[in-house]
Amino acid sequence: MLKIKTEKGDCSRPGVTCMGDAVNIAVENRQGRPLILELFYKKSLKKAGSVKFPKDSVLGDMHSVKISGIDASELAYRIRYGNNEGIDPYACAVTGNERFGKRRIYGLFAKPEVPGTGKRPETAWNDSVFYLLNVRGYTKDNSSGVDEKGTIKALAKKIPYLKKTGITAVILQPVYDFDETMEPGISGEKRLNFWGYSKGNYFAVKQAYCSGDPSKEFADTVRAFHDSGLEVILQFYFPDDTPESYITACIRYWVTQYGIDGVQLLGSSLPLRNVFTDPLLKSTKILVTDPDMDAVYGNTTPDRKNAGAMLDSFMYDCRKYLKGDEDMLSSFAMHILNNPEKCAAVNYITNYYGFTLNDLVSYDRKHNEANGEDNKDGGDYNYSWNCGAEGKSRKKSVNQLRKKQIRNALCFMFLSQGTPMLRAGDEFLNSQNGNNNAYCQDNKTSYLNWNDLEKNKDIYDFVRKLIAFRKAHPVFKSASRKKMMDYISCGYPDVSFHGEQAWHADFANYNRHFAVMYCGAYEKNAKGGRDDDFFVIYNMHWMDHRFHPPKAPKNKEWKIVMSTDEGFLEKPVPVEAGEVMVQQRSVMVLETFAAAPKKE
To answer: Are 84 and 154 in a shared domain?
Structure first.
């Protein structure tokens, strides 16, 4: 056994602090039970010794001990609280979780040495395109075509694909060392927490997600993303009993240690005011579900916007409008122009919970039988429509309608103000076979099948072109809220609503069609010139409708550049006789071009 020297520790530094040839460890002990530091040899995990925390080394609920006479790099540790054993919540490195689904965690004394993670891109909210993914599920399937499948290192291999698609930031489901073990299902089958929304060791990178040293692998991946101009945003789930100071310390650690660009905080008791106003986090994107920004800032507006509101209301209202529900025009019109002053609006049609985009148009009901909860888990209200057949169909008409509905949904998201978020795999029609809550599916249900990328290349190409179209035209991604006024006296308001007749919008509850005109005079394109004008027509009715766009500006004419019936047109089609027929359940985009010379 080791010959260990102990002395009074420093309670002011939570967790492990290496101090030359000595180690200080400080942990919280609310119950006041005796604490014992159990030491193990790191390689064999055999017991190496025990150390009692001194009774005179206590400050409030913090207990500490300083030990020397050991080679800390060769040891691991656990902390025994009476009959319970665990590690301190500030552990930055752990071992015992090398395989997903098998864990007995030990803390490591050595602080992770993190190489530089490159310059943060700090992409503006209105220029951002978010992409939500699960690290393990993204590349675990053999079809991913990368080595070290299901790891953080493999994710870095997909950077060229992400750049090609037009993504600017990835949002990663938890990569901290969460506990994936779960109780068996009702039939006794083994289940794992695939998503990762559970308590864990919040300061440590999940080793089961890595092919080598976790800290180095994650830091190298962040640097690779930064070198490519991409941002990395991490999700964290905190239970209600998590201390606010701990949450703030955790976020600060990942931002300063690994240079991450943002966090998405999940939980119902979060210190939002402290996090949003923390000077260290003012350049960090902080995403929260529908935050009350007035409670944070009162009547003032932040000088620098770092808060992002994840809007389920956008998702559900757009789904209702997509399938043609009544009385949705006013809500939909509000959503596509939503651009708050105190925070960014993050818009999505699908999220990790609920159907994938493909399943949204293929299933009326959830099919979660494989989850082991008798299909009682997951949301019952998905606002989905199967387009005439439940699940996979061989009917050409059904599949054509489904693809058009998918293109419609994508237009809702990418032609709206705010920041769009795409769920990974939606761009090539990933399906979970109707499972809308695949939290415990560590299998092909949750793994992306990359063969679908080639099978559904038409949808993928549409996504790429739609993202590029959004990026090229700032009228669809304004930095500030639209005023719906002609405040520069150019003859047109910055944005305006229309019905079948120009300037006559009809938001009656029985209507399912209207149009939006964006005046390009209010925005500058990448070359510094005025943007073009656009007339976007939304028709979610099951009938065709004829629209008459406003008169184009002088020496300009309207041309059709895209419809969800035909996609993006190689050659824009002029609008004849000042009117255009829009097919049922379709979106159409008109753009102004220089008018052709009149024939004499």
So the answer is: no
Q: How far is CA 170 from CA 51, 158, 410, 448, in A?
A: 43, 11, 18, 16
Which run of H or of E encompasses 135? helix 135-139
Name the residue range of residue 217's domain. Answer: 125-183+206-236+257-476
Give me 151's structure tokens: 């790891």
Percent helix, strand, coil in the chain (nearest 5)?
25, 25, 50
CB 292 within 8 A of CB 342: no
Q: What is the b/e burial string over 170-205, where b = at least 16 CB atoms within 10 angstroms of the residue's CB?
A: bbbbbbbbbebebeeeeeeeebebbbbbeebbbbbb
Selection from 237, 230, 249, 163 nearest residue 467 by Cα = 163
**pLDDT, tens digit, 9 for 90 and up, residues 200-257:** 999 999 999 999 999 999 999 999 999 999 999 999 999 998 999 999 999 999 999 9
539-589 pLDDT, tens digit per residue, is 999 999 999 999 999 899 999 999 999 999 999 999 998 999 999 999 999
Considering the domain architecture, whether residues 28 and 156 belong to the same structural domain is answered as no
Alpha helices in 298-395 (DSSP H): 312-322, 329-337, 357-360
Tell me if 560 sits within 8 A of 583, measured CB to CB. no
Give the model confidence (pLDDT) of 575-592 as tens digits.
998 999 999 999 999 999
Residues 518 and 394 in one domain: no
Q: Is residue 117 included in any domain, yes or no?
A: no
Residue 600: pLDDT band (50, 70, 90) is low
Q: pTM above the 0.70 mark?
A: yes
Burial of residue 577 (CB within 10 Å: 0-12, 13-18, 19+) is exposed
> Do 185 and 370 touch, CB atoms closer than 8 A?
no
pLDDT given at position 559:
97
Q: Which backbone phi and psi does 306 adopt, to 5 degrees?
A: -120, -5
- Answer whether 78's CB lies under 8 Å from 25's CB: no
